[in-house]
From TrEMBL:
One of its GO terms (biological process) is mitochondrion organization. SUPFAM superfamilies: GST C-terminal domain-like. The gene is Mtx1. Coiled coil: none annotated. The chain crosses the membrane at residues 103-125. It comes from Smutsornis africanus. Residues 6-69 form the Metaxin glutathione S-transferase domain. One of its GO terms (cellular component) is SAM complex. Keywords: Membrane, Transmembrane, Transmembrane helix. Residues 127-147 are annotated as: Disordered. This is MTX1 protein.
Length: 147
């Protein structure tokens, strides 16, 4: 029943779209965004049961609709050669110091965590050997036993 209803819904969408570029003419509306968000994964994803996907692929105007939106608003989508070549170069031009900034972020975070650990007493540094007045440092297990 669910597949039958979904097939009927796709057929009705196909009839409503007809030969138009978008559902309400030449420019997209919120309905186009909603419908595309449901159709594109159904059209592009690899599904275990492809009945509904096959029905969608048989509705050529809906397939063209999805392809048109993908190429218009998501030109980097797909395994095209310009994407593979341009993605690396474009990223480097966008932020030439990206790797340096990432490393600095990690270092600042590490220093902040260590600073907090020392200041809150979670971690303390003790010198080896006997402490002042011949006292030796107390280990964690010994502290618990004394309490």
């Amino acid at each position: 029943q669910l597949y039958r209803d979904a097939r009927e819904c796709l057929t009705l969408l196909s009839q409503r779209l007809g030969s138009q570029k978008f559902f309400f003419g030449d420019s997209p509306a919120s309905l186009d965004a909603f419908v595309f968000s449901r159709l594109a994964p159904l059209l592009k994803a690899k599904l275990p049961n492809g009945k509904l996907q096959q029905h969608l692929k048989s509705l050529q105007n809906l397939c063209n609709y999805c392809t048109s939106i993908l190429s218009l608003y998501f030109p980097w989508d797909g395994a095209s050669a310009p994407r593979a070549a341009g993605a690396e170069g474009g990223e480097a031009e966008e932020d030439p110091h990206k790797r340096r900034n990432q490393l600095l972020s990690v270092l600042v975070g590490l220093v902040a965590m260590l600073g907090y650990a020392f200041l809150s007493g979670i971690v303390s540094i003790q010198r080896g050997g006997a402490g002042p007045a011949g006292r030796r440092p107390i280990a964690l297990a010994e502290e618990e036993e004394e309490e």
